[in-house]
Amino acid sequence: MPVTLPHSCSVIPSFEEKKRGTVTIRLEENKTVVV
Predict the structure, then answer these.
(1) Residue 10: which domain range?
(2) How far apart are CA 34 and CA 17, in angstroms?
(3) Which of 11, 18, 8, 15 is nearest to 26 (CA)?
């Protein structure tokens, strides 16, 4: 499921990708996690 993160939230892309595997992180662009 798509998750929108607050602008104050700081997430490391590699960490999220390892955690979920099928998640693409675009924090630098629109703070959105795309599944």
Answers:
(1) 3-34
(2) 11
(3) 11
Give the chain's domain count. 1
Quickly list DSSP for 3-27: EEPPTT----HHHHHHHHSS-EEEH
The answer to whether the predicted template modeling score (pTM) of the entire model surpasses 0.85 is no
Nearest 5°: CA angle at 5, between 8 and 30?
90
User: What is the DSSP code (8-state) at residue 30?
Assistant: H
Q: What is the pLDDT of residue 27?
A: 57
How big is the CA angle at 29 (ends 25 and 31), to the nearest 5 degrees? 60
